[in-house]
Amino acid sequence: MNRRLPPLNALKAFEAAARHGNFSAAASALYVTHGAISRQIQQLEQWLGVELFERHGRRVRLSVAGQSYLPAIQAALDSIAAATEKLTARKQGRRLNINVTPTLAMHWLLPRLTRFQLRYPGVELRLATSDASINNQNADFDIAIRRGKDHWHGFVSHAFLTEREIPVCSPALLQRLPIRQPADLAAHTLLHAETRPVAWARWLAAAGVPALQSAADQHFDHYYLALQAAVDGLGVTLGALPVIESELASGKLVAPLTGPEITVRGYSWAVPQALVGDELVTAFCRWLEEEGSQH
Are residue 83 and residue 100 in the same domain, yes or no? Predict the structure, then answer.
């Protein structure tokens, strides 16, 4: 079938300019000049017979036609990139790029990865950690793992791990300041994570002490820092089960109260549409579900 297709370089220039919001940034991203980007986009507009950008001096923004055209072009370029990666990976030995939240990577995924690698010894795993939202414009991975059950546009996703929260602290701190009931937390410093801003308020309400005033509060931008602060005896944090099961098993952390255990957002894997059906990607996602089902 004869396909009526515009020039590929012009499509790449259009997508880059739309993604970055200006021609100069697109030129830097594609290692060409500003003039080259401008000429390629003009060529594409002439080929299509419509203006893709509204130009206001040096500023540009997508026209209505450009906004309509962009998602399909991004999806097509993503599919070409994924197919190319898949083909070249076969020649070089297969590689999986995993993008995962830092806390889950350190406390849950890394201790289990040996089991996956024993099952698939020829696979190279590359892990990157991030809490950033995922979308079609930054999908430089095969599989992402994020909290929640969001339906990310351009991705297929599935929940694989349920999470429950309960107060935890170091054994030394508990020996010095016992916690026999939720009200005893008033004598302690509560450790908060900015990535879980309502965690303590939610737990205290469920425990029947919503107005509890702690002795002090400390805030951290990442949850894994709050966990480490608890291990070091700085205060009490809400431990996520089963993510911190190794810290509980080793005695680095203890859970002084039996409850309540609050079920919160768990974790989901997300795969770009272009990689749905890929055998190795599917195998890793199924392995995640197997590991998650053990809890």
Answer: no
